[in-house]
Amino acid sequence: MGDINIYGYMRVSSKEQNEDRQKIALTEMGVPGNHIYMDKQSGKDFERTQYKRLLRKLNENSVLYIKSIDRLGRNYGELNEQWRIITKEKKADIVVIDMPLLDTRREKNLLGTFISDVVLALLSYVAENERTNIKQRQAEGIAAAKARGVKFGRPPLPIPENFYQMHKDWRAGKITIEEAAKACNMCPKTFYSKAVKYEKSS
Predict the structure, then answer these.
(1) Helix/strand/coil for 201
(2) Do residue 86 and residue 173 come from a single domain?
(3) Segment 23-55, tens digit of pLDDT
(4) Per the domain annotation, does 152 fall within a domain?
């Protein structure tokens, strides 16, 4: 297979601008410098200029090298979709350098394709699961902290000294809620919720 068919893709997120490791890995695999496509942005979606240019070049005679699977993206539903486009629609091969099992050139039979698809699905599942677990652990941590009495968000502002008098005047119909709230430096909604709270507790 001639050099012309070998491509590399690398993505550098805005946080870690160090592309050297990816570049070295791709070069070691024999990817010519002018066939390395690089995007510098987050992996949220696939609106990437270089990635789109690369996709247009791929065909059944192409091999695409990437250092790790997350270079294709971190949205795993989308990652599976991109894998399908590259391998099924473009009929190109993908080699994931950090994951030797993800090399679609290995066996061009049904078993080879099946192994690649299973490994990719497994990685996707593990990653999705990890994301769900992180969210769950965060929720549990917040619930546990709340149970210990840790307060989240801004602390409520202390009730001004004139609140009780304004509340009395408002309930007596001497002033409107807008006037009472303004005198207490509150918006009417806040004044009302504090009034209800005060009435319940008294």
Answers:
(1) helix
(2) no
(3) 999 999 999 999 999 988 755 555 688 999 999
(4) no
In the annotation, is 13 catalytic? Answer: yes
- Annotated catalytic residue, options 13, 42, 68, 124: 13
Q: What is the DSSP string of 114-151?
A: HHHHHHHHHHHHHHHHHHHHHHHHHHHHHHHHHHTT--
Q: Which residues constitute the domain of residue 189?
A: 163-201
Assign 21 to helix, strand or coil: helix
Q: Look up residue 63 and give its amino acid.
A: V
Residue 179 lies in a domain: yes
Residue that finishes a domain, picked among 108, 128, 148: 128
Contact 95, 129 (CB under 8 A): no
pLDDT of 50-83, one tens digit each? Answer: 999 999 999 999 999 999 887 877 667 777 888 8
Supply the pTM of this predicted model. 0.57
Considering the domain boundaries, does residue 153 fall inside one?
no
Residues contacting residue 43 through CB under 8 Å, at least 6 positions apart = 11, 13, 70, 71, 73, 74, 75
